[in-house]
Structures are given as structure tokens and as C-alpha cells.
Specification:
The protein is mostly helical. The protein has 13 helices and four strands. Helix content is 56%, strand content 5%. Helix 4 links the parallel strand 1 and strand 2.
Length: 293
């Protein structure tokens, strides 16, 4: 491991150890991603060679392509899936060293030199800027149902997944996949535990967390039933958000219990395959470890 990498890992570990409990739990995924990022090759070089894009170009910054999914953050998958669904041109840049200056999170968007963090606010901004309807063809009732399922997935199921992947998995497959050393892994997991305890999910036993995830997926499974997508034969914005979470659980739980939990609901596995086939025909090309696309 290079001296640059060692210094970066040291900074990450210091940041994790020094974080106060009062820090919002939404930073957990960023901390975990930062630890992974230092072992990905070529990121430092790309920082000094940032591309210049024509005005009007949507550029999504995220942590990089994963070995099983197009991104290790579901919120980047959500954005890319929506852009693909609506045929909206966009570019991606992959560099975990460059988080949003406003929130310290990823993904974020650069549009005409303006930075916009948070996937929902990005879509809201583009709705106004590009004059399109985020809820085209949906009734008010469907919008309410879709928002409820999205919030369940992003604000509850997501945290079950985070603690499962990064903390509870005793095999440490996610950490080992990215060659994270034992000491850095220990420090990172300790920091994540503290953050998830503050958020609330970390106060439960592993069995309870698995049960919470399963109950969330059961509710979604019952609602989707035999439908192709959330509201029928055509996917919508809410499908993109839900798919982002389910894709991580389905394919990127590594050694955690997420994979076995989602397999209890075959229609959700089929739903994931359908979303992937419909909007990600290049999925296999987009899953890789060196963040080059």
C-alpha cells in the first residue's frame, strides 16, 4: 500500500474516531464509502484533471462503480435509472474524494457550475429547469402511495442494509473486497456503530434488524404483487428510488443477510431483474472496481 494511501486511510480513521454522536446518521454511508475510496486506483490523478463540460450538461458525481452494482450508493442508481427512463442525457464522474461542499455527501450534481446535493432536490431542480413532470401519468393517490414506499425504503430499509453490509456481516466480505486493512475496518465499524446508534437502527439486535428489513420488503412485495412495476406496466420515479435500494440488497449485500431476506420475496427479485433489463442493458459493463465510467 502506498504512502499516499496510508495517509488517506489515517485521515479517514481519524475522522471516524473524532465524530461526535450528535452528527446526523446520514453521514454513515459517506464515511464507509470514504474508507473504500482510498483503495480504489486512479482517483487522485483524476482530481487534478477535471473535465470541462458544455453548459446545460448534467454531471452526477458519485463514489464509483461497484463490483456487483453500478454504484455502491443506491441514490446514484436512483438518479441514473431515472435519467435512463426519461431519456435525459447525463454524464458521471467518480471520485469519492470529492463530496458535496454543502452537505459532505454523495451523489451530487454539477449543472452550469452550480452544485446541487441530494437526489430528491436534484430531481426537483431539474423538473423546473427542464420543465418535465416527475409524476407524469400518476394520480394523487398513487403519488401519495409512491412517496410512502420511497420513504420507507430510503429512510428505514436503507439503514437496515447499511448496518447489515458494513457492521453485522461477520465475514467482512465488503471490506475484504476492497482490501481494507483490519485496523481501518475496526475503526470504521466502530464509527458506523456509533452513528447508527444515534440514528436508532443500531439500538436493535441483529435479529430485530433482519425482521425490520423483512417486514419492509414484505409490505412492498404485497403491494407490487404480480404487477410489472409499482403502479402497473410502466415504471415511474418511485420505481427508480425503490430499485436503488433493492438493487443494493439483491446484489451488493456481500456476506450480509440482505440477499437471503430479499430471496424470501421472489416477486421482488423478479422486479429487480425487470428494472435491470429495462433500464440497464449495459449493467455488466457498468459493474467494475476501478471507477472508470
Amino acid at each position: 500500500m502506498t504512502s499516499t494511501t496510508n495517509m488517506a486511510l489515517s485521515k479517514v480513521s481519524d475522522a471516524i474516531v473524532d465524530l461526535p454522536v450528535s452528527v446526523k446518521a446520514v453521514g454513515v454511508a459517506v464515511l464507509a464509502g470514504a474508507t473504500l475510496a482510498v483503495v480504489w486506483r486512479g482517483l487522485g490523478a483524476r482530481q487534478s484533471n477535471r473535465k470541462v463540460y458544455p453548459r446545460g450538461t448534467i454531471v452526477i458525481h458519485q463514489m464509483g462503480r461497484g463490483p456487483h452494482v453500478p454504484s455502491l450508493t443506491p441514490f446514484a442508481i436512483k438518479l441514473e435509472t431515472y435519467f435512463r427512463m426519461e431519456g435525459i442525457p447525463y454524464q458521471t464522474e467518480h471520485n469519492m474524494y470529492r463530496a458535496s461542499k454543502k452537505t459532505g455527501k454523495i451523489p451530487f450534481m454539477i449543472y452550469n457550475d452550480e452544485e446541487l446535493p441530494d437526489s430528491e432536490f436534484i430531481l426537483e431542480f431539474l423538473r423546473k429547469e427542464k420543465n418535465f413532470d416527475l409524476h407524469k401519468g400518476l394520480t394523487d393517490e398513487q403519488i401519495g402511495i409512491g412517496r410512502a414506499f420511497q420513504r420507507m425504503a430510503e429512510e428505514n430499509t436503507y439503514w437496515c442494509f447499511v448496518i447489515d453490509r458494513w457492521v453485522l456481516d461477520e465475514t467482512n466480505k465488503a471490506w475484504e473486497t476492497f482490501n481494507v486493512s483490519a485496523i481501518i475496518r475496526y475503526l470504521a465499524k466502530r464509527g458506523i456503530r456509533k452513528q447508527l446508534y444515534a440514528q436508532g437502527m443500531g439500538r436493535h439486535t441483529p435479529e430485530e434488524i433482519r425482521h425490520i428489513m423483512s417486514d419492509d420488503l414484505k409490505a412492498l412485495s404485497h403491494y407490487i404483487g404480480s404487477k410489472k412495476f409499482l403502479f402497473g406496466d410502466k415504471a415511474c420515479k418511485f420505481d427508480c428510488a425503490i430499485f436503488g435500494i433493492l438493487a443494493e440488497i439483491r446484489w451488493a449485500s456481500f456476506g450480509g443477510f440482505g440477499t437471503s431476506v430479499i430471496k424470501e420475496y421472489p416477486n421482488l427479485c423478479d422486479y429487480c431483474e425487470r428494472m435491470k433489463a429495462t433500464f440497464w442493458p449495459d449493467w455488466e459493463e457498468m459493474i467494475q472496481r476501478d471507477c472508470t465510467k
